[in-house]
Design goal:
Elements lengths: L5 E7 L5 E14 L1 E3 L5 E3 L3 E7 L2 E2 L3 E2 L4 E16 L4 E16 L12 E2 L4 E4 L5 E14 L3 H31 L3
């Protein structure tokens, strides 16, 4: 029988500058890291870290850069991490069922400025939020944007399209006149 994937939830907070994570773990430790430019592990700047067991909070200790250790068991680890450039990346050692929740006003649907890693299903969530889910994955990547970015992109695109038409119009007129 297939073992159900552990669950991880990432909730981007209003404003899009921080996300709150809740990750199920089994074992004696956990590492907080993201990918660097060359794919290397880069420790995350974690805040408000809690390790929760069935009976409540559990003591943990630092175990090197970006890692913690705790007694053997099943836990839920919660923490917050600053978001850089509207880009959330999470990497796991084993497959997880992952949900990323975006608050009202943030979007991923425009492929020019938004992105969801393969396998992610985008759907509306409660209270005008957006949820992106993966059934089993060891990595998720989401690039989101605020409506102002989309308006800026549309405005910028419209201006450039207008400039291109103005610059190419004389070419097309002369091309038609020459029997092209």
């Amino acid at each position: 029988p297939a073992v159900a994937a552990k669950e991880a939830t990432f909730r981007v907070l209003p404003g899009g500058t921080t996300y709150e994570a809740s990750v199920q773990v089994t074992g004696t430790g956990y590492g907080f890291w993201g990918p660097g430019l060359m794919g290397e592990r880069v420790p995350l700047q974690v805040e408000d870290l809690k390790v929760l067991g069935p009976a409540g909070p559990v003591d943990y200790r630092e175990a090197g850069r970006g890692a913690i250790a705790f007694p053997e068991g099943n836990y839920t680890i919660t923490y917050q991490v600053p978001v850089r450039d509207n880009h959330l990346v999470a990497i796991f050692d084993t497959p997880y069922a992952v949900t990323v929740a975006l608050p009202e006003g943030l979007d991923v649907k425009n492929p020019l400025i938004g992105m969801v890693s393969p396998g992610g299903a985008v759907s509306p969530g409660p209270n005008e939020t957006m949820e992106i889910t993966w059934d089993r994955t060891d990595a998720v990547e989401v690039r989101f944007y605020a409506p102002e970015r989309e308006i800026l992109l549309t405005t910028f695109g419209t201006i450039w399209l207008s400039v291109a038409i103005v610059l190419l119009l004389p070419y097309f007129i002369s091309w038609r006149r020459d029997g092209g």
